[in-house]
Every structure is written in structure tokens, then in C-alpha cells.
């Protein structure tokens, strides 16, 4: 049978569900291993009682709460059904056939996928030898056709962060009508030295073409509820909002996000435990012979290159589900404490 399906989408990867098996430790999706805090579970249960009603399409309560805590106006915040859909909205409002969307590579898989769904052309600029976004090379790759730039910081899957100085220099070089999206999905896990640290919200005041993306999926532990947000210029976000799937942020997601903002102290205490574990895991992997780049997310990166499939198979056999990226490396989420020794043991047995 043939159907009238867009042929330019034929080569999109077909979604393959993540595998799992009993007793396996899931370290493949950068999820938080803790379940929701009691107050958050309670907020979700209360929202469940109202699912006969549509949610508030504008997520006003959450938008206002975020605006207050970020020190911006509500018009400068867009709440979305996960920051993945905000990436899509921003591509939709800027880019179509013939336009280019620029980002580093290897990076977040949504960028090329959503770009191609929009009919636009992904332009991928290789990371530096240290697996960091190469912003100088990206600035040089901007053309007449470039409509959107993604900077993933920390970069998924390598975990690295660009320095404050390079980021500023890049923003100074980019034309001021070209949108730059700084994807900070792992913002809460960054532990940067003062010279390296930057403040995205401050940069945004100076560079109005900067849009910052954050999410409740990672540090806030709400991956299953789908809620993230963008901080940007009202004109950009008005356009972006108009392309969002209507009513896609559920009341449960909104209420859980609000309860999570209230519980930030507890959640950030978990983040602190995790970043300490991450640093320890990365150090031990380096001792075991792996050149693990600076890890600033809730995961570590084994640059296994051509050996990626073999290395991932070693983890699989040990009951550890990790995320291989063919030809580049293996991303391992920092999970429970028990996982640390097991990850190091397998990694050492397949070290370069
Ligand atoms: C996990 C992740 C997101 C967030 O996705 P949600 O849709 O909010 O769950 C965004 N960007 C990157 C780079 C990520 O790794």
C-alpha cells in the first residue's frame, strides 16, 4: 500500500521504545530515581479529581509564579508541554523549507528531528575536542538562511558547558534578529567555577534575541507529566504560544509544577546529593581509563566512538540500561548510589 505521506519525512528515525527487563537499573533517560514528594503527589491527586474539565490553556497560575520567581513579566514566560514542545514551537515560528536551524553535534536529538518535521534544514556543527559546543565555529556557520540557533548547555549527551566568556562573545557576534535558544534542561545541576558561570536571565536582558528553556522534567522530577517553560521576548513567545498544541499542559502538570516550586528546598537537596555522586562517578570513570568530559548534567559521557555498541552491550549484560549514540559514545544517567560501583565496574572492564 502507498499513502500520501510527505516523502521528505521518509528518513526520519522510527521511534523505538526504550528497553527494560526485570531487575535492570534504568540509566538511559536522565530521569530522577525518586518518586514525587508527598506534597506533589497530593497536588496531582487533587488535580485528578477534576479531569472532566479542560485545563487552563494559558497555565496562568504557573506562568505568574514562574515570572515572580525569575524576576520577569508573565508575558516573558511560556509554559509548555515539556521543553521539547517549546523547541518545536520555536522552530515552527522561525523556520520552514529553505531555512536553516543551527546547533552543535552531538547534541539533543529533538533539534534535528523537529527541524526536519518543519521542513527546514538542520545544520550541525561539530563539538570541540573536549565535547563542548564550538560557538566560534557556529558563529562562522551562520548564513543568510539561518533562522534559529540552539545552544544546549549543559549539552545532552556530553554534559559539557560553554564558558561565560565564549557565550557572551557568541551573542555579540550573532545578528540581533536571529533567535538563539539556550536549552538549560539541566540548569539546576550546574556547578560552575565563578569564572565559568554565566547568568542566562541577565544575558537575556542584554540580548533580547535570547530565549532560555528550562524544564520540570529533570531536577524537579516531573518527567512523566510534561511541563517546561521558555523565558524570552514577549513578541517571540506570543508567536510561539500561538503554535502550541491547545490545552497540552494538563492541570495535573501545572499543579505538580506549582507544588514543586514550593518544595524547591527539598528538591534541590536531592540535586546536591546527585551532583556530588556525579562528580565522584566521573572521577572514578576517569581513573578507570575513560576520558569523561566535564559533567554538568545528571549524567556522564563515555566517548566510546566506534566501540559504542560493544560498550553498551557490556552494560546491558550487567543489567544496566544506558543510552548508546552510535559512533559517538554512551550516556549514563547518574542513578541511585548502588549504581555507582556497578557502572564503574562495567566501564573498567570495557575501558579503552
Ligand atoms: C530532557 C531534556 C529536555 C526536556 O524535555 P522535556 O520535554 O521538558 O521533558 C530539553 N532539552 C534537553 C537537552 C533535554 O535533555
Give a brief rundown of this model:
The chain has 352 residues and is an alpha/beta fold. It has 12 helices and 12 strands. It has helices spanning 38-48, 60-70, 83-94, 110-117, 135-140, 164-173, 200-206, 234-242, 251-262, 264-287, 308-317, 337-349; strands spanning 25-26, 77-80, 100-105, 121-126, 146-152, 179-183, 210-215, 228-231, 299-302, 320-321, 323-325, 329-333.
Number of helices: 12
Could you give a short account of the major beta sheet?
A: 7 strands, mixed
Instruction: Give the low-pLDDT segments.
Output: none
Quick check: average pLDDT?
Answer: 96
Which distinct ligands sit in these coordinates? pyridoxal-5'-phosphate
Helix proportion: 25-40%
Residue fraction in strands: 15-25%
The count of DSSP E runs of length 2 or more, i.e. the number of strands, is 12
Structural class by helix and strand composition: alpha/beta
User: Globular, elongated, flat, extended or rod-shaped: what is the shape?
Assistant: globular
Give the N-terminus to C-terminus distance in angstroms.
Answer: 48 Å
Biggest sheet: strand arrangement: 2-8-7-6-5-3-4
Integer-rounded radius of gyration: 20 Å
Report the order of strands and helices.
EHHEHEHEHEHEHEEHHHEHEEEH
Write the layout of secondary structure elements.
Blueprint: E1 25-26, H1 38-48, H2 60-70, E2 77-80, H3 83-94, E3 100-105, H4 110-117, E4 121-126, H5 135-140, E5 146-152, H6 164-173, E6 179-183, H7 200-206, E7 210-215, E8 228-231, H8 234-242, H9 251-262, H10 264-287, E9 299-302, H11 308-317, E10 320-321, E11 323-325, E12 329-333, H12 337-349
Parallel strand pairs: 1-10, 3-4, 3-5, 5-6, 6-7
Antiparallel strand pairs: 2-8, 7-8, 9-12, 11-12
Amino acid at each position: 500500500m502507498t499513502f500520501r505521506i510527505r516523502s521528505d519525512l521518509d528518513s526520519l528515525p522510527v521511534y523505538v521504545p526504550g528497553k527494560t527487563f526485570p531487575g535492570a537499573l534504568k540509566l538511559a533517560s536522565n530521569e530522577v530515581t525518586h518518586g514525587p514528594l508527598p506534597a506533589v503527589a497530593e497536588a496531582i491527586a487533587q488535580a485528578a479529581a477534576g479531569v472532566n474539565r479542560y485545563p487552563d490553556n494559558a497555565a496562568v497560575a504557573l506562568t505568574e509564579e514562574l515570572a515572580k520567581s525569575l524576576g520577569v513579566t508573565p508575558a516573558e514566560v511560556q509554559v509548555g508541554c515539556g521543553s521539547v514542545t517549546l523547541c518545536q514551537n520555536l522552530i515552527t515560528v522561525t523556520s520552514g523549507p529553505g531555512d536553516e536551524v543551527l546547533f552543535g553535534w552531538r547534541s539533543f536529538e529533538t533539534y534535528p528531528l523537529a527541524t526536519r518535521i518543519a521542513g527546514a534544514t538542520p545544520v550541525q556543527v561539530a563539538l570541540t575536542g573536549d565535547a563542548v559546543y564550538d560557538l566560534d565555529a557556529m558563529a562562522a556557520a551562520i548564513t543568510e538562511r539561518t533562522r534559529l540557533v540552539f545552544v544546549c548547555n549543559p549539552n545532552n549527551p556530553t554534559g559539557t558547558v560553554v564558558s561565560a566568556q565564549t557565550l557572551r562573545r557568541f551573542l555579540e557576534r550573532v545578528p540581533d534578529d536571529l533567535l538563539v535558544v539556550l536549552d538549560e534542561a539541566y540548569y539546576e545541576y550546574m556547578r560552575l567555577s565563578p569564572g565559568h558561570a554565566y547568568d542566562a536571565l541577565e544575558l537575556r536582558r542584554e540580548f533580547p534575541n535570547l530565549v532560555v528553556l528550562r524544564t520540570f522534567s529533570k531536577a524537579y522530577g516531573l518527567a512523566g507529566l510534561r511541563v517546561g517553560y521558555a523565558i524570552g521576548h514577549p513578541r517571540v513567545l506570543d508567536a510561539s504560544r500561538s503554535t502550541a498544541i491547545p490545552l497540552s499542559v494538563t492541570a495535573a502538570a501545572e499543579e505538580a509544577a506549582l507544588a514543586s516550586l514550593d518544595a524547591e528546598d527539598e528538591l534541590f537537596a536531592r540535586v546536591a546529593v546527585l551532583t556530588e555522586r556525579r562528580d565522584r562517578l566521573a572521577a572514578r570513570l576517569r581513573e578507570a581509563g575513560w576520558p569523561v568530559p566535564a559533567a554538568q548534567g545528571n549524567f556522564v559521557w563515555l566517548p566510546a566512538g566506534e566501540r559504542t555498541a560493544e560498550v553498551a552491550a557490556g552494560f546491558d549484560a550487567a543489567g544496566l540500561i544506558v543510552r548508546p549514540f552510535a559512533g559517538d559514545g554512551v550516556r549514563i544517567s547518574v542513578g541511585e548510589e548502588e549504581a555507582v560501583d556497578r557502572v564503574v565496574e562495567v566501564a573498567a572492564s570495557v575501558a579503552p
